[in-house]
């Protein structure tokens, strides 16, 4: 039997491992941490029984993944849950734009912009399953659904600052801009609007669900499937060289998938990497970081806007113009006074995340702020102030916090260089060609060795497609 090893147990590494095991290979996954999952882990950090997602929290691309959706992960413990409102973006005047799976629900919050919102997103949501097949794969390919993808492609090329001109009033403009800010960087450059289009369309098509019991349920389901296929996972094994890999395994595997950032591949493969690839990896750019805070609160968040009290995900950044300015500042290495923030109320869809302590209902609130790459300061107060801005009285409900700074995030996961949870800047070149310009972005130029992290197409997000396509590249070679 042919043997394979996967270094890293994030969703891409596990997806790649499953695909190889499906093809009959004997697969071993090695994970540096004591628990598998990479960005899909869940922990009790503040109050016993209170569940906090360590990194990934909402999974529109997971629910829409062309590969994960074929695996029957519900048979292995994964269950998607949806809040009543998928996403909300509040404003200082008390209004908020919202996204739900029923697009007409958004109309009452978008006012005069509702019709133009439909014109942009209704065709994308209606054909999202076809668009996802082509958008979540290497850029150099013949589209399987050219009509649907052709509708998305030209719009995706535009900067977010141009796309936002479809709308006139603040709720729609802010709602789109907040989704576009998931690109982590300047939003006035080509292709910067693509992330906003894709994730907003996904919100209307499949929603922004959470995994019951926490994001760790996703990696747990993948591991159980892998083990059913004969594979295994070993934790607490940090791989730093090919020699060590051989020593740990006791053999030379036919296939090596590295679920690591380019910096990790440089460390492990060293001088074995061809010069052209080594140079490209040294030039590879990483993006802004996050400062993450988990809150334990008594009761619910006292949002001024009623829709926000039913929203699983919230973007806090004010108007579109404010979002554009703060994202540009973090990209320049400047810490904004009011950083763009992402808030999670997963417990609204999944009450198992909450607990009762001393007769009080304690709920987990997941949050992070966008900060400059490698930011060494403490953005906790700025993040808390952003929540308080739209939910006066929030501070009074805090029971406890657990903080991970940008440098802490890098220590938590070696792929998060400088705290960049996307494992690579989403500039125009790297959206199209990451980690380097080549027809096969997964190949490492060493026979049998492939990169499968979110530093490869289609980039960040819990979708497993990077691992799947890296495994497919390996199988074609075999």
From TrEMBL:
PANTHER family: DEHYDROGENASE-RELATED (PTHR10668:SF105), PHYTOENE DEHYDROGENASE (PTHR10668). This is NAD(P)/FAD-dependent oxidoreductase. The lineage of its organism: Bacteria, Bacillati, Actinomycetota, Actinomycetes, Propionibacteriales.
């Amino acid at each position: 039997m042919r043997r394979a090893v996967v270094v890293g147990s994030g969703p891409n590494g596990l997806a790649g491992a499953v695909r190889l095991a499906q093809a009959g290979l004997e697969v071993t996954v090695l994970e540096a941490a004591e628990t598998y999952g990479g960005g899909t882990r869940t922990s009790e950090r503040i109050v016993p029984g209170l569940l906090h997602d360590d990194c990934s929290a909402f999974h529109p691309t997971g629910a829409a993944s062309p590969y994960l959706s074929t695996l029957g992960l519900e048979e292995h413990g994964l269950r998607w849950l949806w809040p009543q409102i998928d996403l909300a973006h509040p404003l200082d005047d008390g209004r908020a734009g919202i996204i739900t799976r029923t697009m007409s629900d958004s109309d009452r919050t978008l006012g005069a912009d509702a019709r133009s919102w439909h014109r942009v997103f209704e065709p994308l949501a209606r054909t999202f399953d076809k668009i996802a097949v082509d958008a979540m794969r290497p850029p150099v390919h013949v589209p399987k659904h050219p009509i649907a993808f052709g509708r998305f492609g030209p719009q995706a090329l535009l900067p977010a600052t141009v796309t936002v001109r479809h709308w006139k009033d603040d709720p729609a403009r802010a709602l789109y801009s907040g989704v576009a800010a998931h690109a982590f960087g300047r939003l006035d450059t080509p292709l910067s609007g693509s992330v906003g289009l894709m994730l907003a369309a996904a919100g209307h098509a499949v929603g922004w669900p959470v995994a019951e019991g926490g994001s760790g349920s996703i990696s747990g389901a993948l591991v159980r499937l892998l083990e059913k296929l004969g594979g295994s996972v070993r934790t607490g094994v940090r791989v730093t060289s090919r020699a060590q890999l051989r020593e740990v395994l006791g053999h030379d595997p036919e296939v090596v998938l590295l679920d690591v950032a380019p910096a990790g591949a440089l460390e492990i493969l060293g001088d074995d990497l061809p010069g052209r690839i080594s140079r490209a990896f040294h030039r590879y750019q990483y993006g802004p970081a996050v400062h993450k805070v988990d809150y334990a609160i008594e009761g619910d968040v006292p949002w001024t806007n009623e829709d926000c009290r039913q929203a699983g995900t919230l973007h806090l950044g004010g108007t579109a113009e404010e979002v554009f300015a703060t994202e540009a500042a973090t990209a320049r290495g400047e810490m904004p006074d009011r950083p763009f923030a992402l808030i999670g109320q997963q417990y609204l869809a999944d009450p198992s995340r909450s607990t009762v302590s001393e007769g009080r209902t304690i709920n987990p609130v997941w949050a992070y702020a966008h900060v400059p790459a490698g930011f060494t300061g403490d953005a906790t107060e700025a993040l808390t102030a952003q929540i308080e801005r739209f939910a006066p009285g929030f501070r009074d409900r805090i029971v406890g916090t657990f903080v991970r700074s940008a440098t802490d995030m890098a220590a938590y996961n070696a792929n998060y260089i400088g705290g960049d949870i996307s494992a690579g800047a989403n500039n125009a070149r790297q959206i199209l060609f990451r980690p380097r310009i080549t027809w096969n972005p997964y190949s490492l130029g060493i026979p049998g060795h492939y990169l499968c992290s979110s530093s490869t197409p289609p980039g960040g997000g819990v979708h497993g497609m990077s691992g799947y396509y890296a495994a497919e590249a390996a199988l074609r070679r075999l």
